[in-house]
Amino acid sequence: QAQLVESGGGSVQAGGSLRLSCEGSGYFVYFYSMGWFREAPGKGREGVASIDAQSTIMYSDSVKGRFTISKGSAKNSLYLEMNNLKPEDTGMYYCVADTAKLSVVSGPAKWTYWGQGTQVTVSS
């Protein structure tokens, strides 16, 4: 079974930056699509950014211009560069992946593989 492991979360002040990483491991699975979701306290899971095998990238409107998603040189590795962070960016961030062509607007139920999450806290 493939596994996703996130790292890089933490606490920053508004206007600060963080870089999240995700590494896929375990039984080899080819991930056509990878992305990031987040979940704020009391809210549902929200798609943040996605990238597929054709390098098609999508962002939610709330992070466009501030966040950058990219793939690493290692297979099934993923990054999320987050700049100009705001308090409303606070939440648990999850790395997601799937063998199908999906995007940030596909909804959380569509994605098969999920990491355990990494906490991001932005204070004002």
Walkthrough of the structure:
With 124 residues, the protein is an all-beta fold. A hairpin with a 5-residue loop joins strand 4 (33-39) and strand 5 (45-52). It starts with a strand and ends with a strand. The chain is globular, with a radius of gyration of 13 Å. The chain contains no helices and eleven strands. The model has no long low-confidence stretch (mean pLDDT 94). The chain has strands spanning 2-7, 10-13, 18-26, 33-39, 45-52, 57-59, 67-71, 77-82, 91-98, 113-114, 118-123. Strands 2, 4, 5, 6, 9, 10 and 11 form a seven-stranded mixed beta sheet that branches. Strands 1-3-8-7 form a four-stranded antiparallel beta sheet, with no helix packed on it.
Topology overview:
Elements lengths: L1 E6 L2 E4 L4 E9 L6 E7 L5 E8 L4 E3 L7 E5 L5 E6 L8 E8 L14 E2 L3 E6 L1
Parallel strand pairs: 2-11
Antiparallel strand pairs: 1-3, 3-8, 4-5, 4-9, 5-6, 7-8, 9-10, 9-11
The geometry reads as globular
Q: What is the straight-line distance between the termini?
A: 40 Å
Approximate helicity band: under 10%
How many distinct helices? 0
Elements, N to C (H/E)? EEEEEEEEEEE
Instruction: Assess the beta-strand content as a share of residues.
Output: over 45%
- Main sheet specs: 7 strands, mixed
The average pLDDT score comes to: 94
Kindly state the number of beta strands.
11
Structural class: mainly beta
Low-confidence stretches: none
Cα-atom radius of gyration: 13 Å
Gist of the model:
The protein is mostly beta strands and 124 residues long. It contains no helices and 11 strands. The strands form 2 sheets. Strands 2, 4, 5, 6, 9, 10 and 11 form a 7-stranded mixed sheet that branches. A 4-stranded antiparallel sheet has the order 1-3-8-7, with no helix packed on it.
